[in-house]
Amino acid sequence: MVLGDLLARKQFQYLKVLNANADLSRTVFTVESTETTDVAKYIPQNTLLLMTGMAFKDNPLHMCSFLEELDEISCAGVAIKLGRFIDKLDERVIAAADQLGLAILQIPMNVTLGQVYREILSYIWENQNDYLLGALNAQKKISNLILQGSSMKSIVNNMTMILNKPVMIMDLFGTILEYGYNYTRADREKTVEDVELLMKEKRLEEEKYSVYQKEGRRFCVHPVKGVSRNTNYIVISDFDPKEKEETVLILEQIIMALEMYFYRSLYVKYNDMEIWEEYRSFFFSQLEKTPESEPQVLTMGKSYGLKKASVRGDHRA
């Protein structure tokens, strides 16, 4: 959840942003309440910290270095209840927060830290549950299509509807395997050129998604891992998962389902090759022992796709 979206909710509009350059695009994963000055060592990233500032009442400027430590761990922001131990933040503290882009929020005197903590944490959990449910439903839908033997076209079109963006699947050589119904030919051709260049420069070796921009176009590339390496890539046009945190989880679940699909396809091909290799070894070993007639040879190899070769012309001496 983005801090700005949280503050835009009616129930949290009592929280006032004190610094003009506060970065409200920071992600909020959880909320903590503490008064210790070494809290940066213990809280997780993307935490919204609640406090009264009691530890800084005798030396308010120590808060500047405190904010720097919080920024290093990607803290979402600091909500402080002024009027209890500190009446007003020093302008140098505000300036330090602005330089870091770390939001400082003021909690009103008539609202307790416990109330803020419970309300925000409850709201975060509620939204995370919704995100998780949406992601699991997406994975279930794609997995069911795979188990039902649906075509790659059907799978990609469903991915297009789930993500509401043009989707394309490419192999590790840059060949398009399939694309969604709304991925235009012009966009496909341009994107393929871009992806082929990224492959040539070996910039698609990462395990996570990457977002690229070129000539005003933006696309996301996420590797689909096979047995031990990337075997395919999902390309999503005009898409950046960071813009909506729920799409990251949805995309990860879809990738898990696709990995199952490509692993199954690879296993089927390998199994067919193994069966053919076993038959070929058996067949030639039998011919060495007892030469078979043409009808017998064709009968033995019929289930493996062995056919009589077409002969043109008369090759008799």
Explained architecture:
By secondary structure, this protein is of the alpha/beta class. 45% of the residues lie in helices and 15% in strands. The strands form two sheets. It has a five-stranded mixed β-sheet with strand order 1-5-4-3-2, covered by helices on one side. The chain has a five-stranded antiparallel β-sheet with strand order 7-6-10-9-8, with helices on both faces. Strand 9 and strand 10 form a beta hairpin. The model has no long low-confidence stretch (mean pLDDT 82).
The poorly predicted ranges are none
Number of strands: 10
C-alpha Rg (nearest Å): 30 Å
Helical content (DSSP H or I, runs of 4+): 40-55%
- SSE order, one letter for each helix or strand: HEEEHEHEHHEEHEEEHH
Strand order of the largest sheet: 1-5-4-3-2
Classify the secondary structure makeup into a structural class: alpha/beta
- Helix tally equals 8
End-to-end CA span:
83 Å
* Proportion in β-strands: 15-25%
The main pleated sheet reads as: 5 strands, mixed
Q: How much is the average pLDDT?
A: 82
Secondary structure layout:
Elements: H1 3-8, E1 16-17, E2 30-33, E3 47-51, H2 62-72, E4 77-80, H3 91-100, E5 104-106, H4 113-147, H5 152-163, E6 167-171, E7 176-179, H6 185-200, E8 210-214, E9 217-225, E10 230-237, H7 245-289, H8 294-301
Parallel strand pairs: 2-3, 3-4, 4-5
Antiparallel strand pairs: 1-5, 6-7, 6-10, 8-9, 9-10
Helix pairs in contact: 2-3, 4-5, 4-7
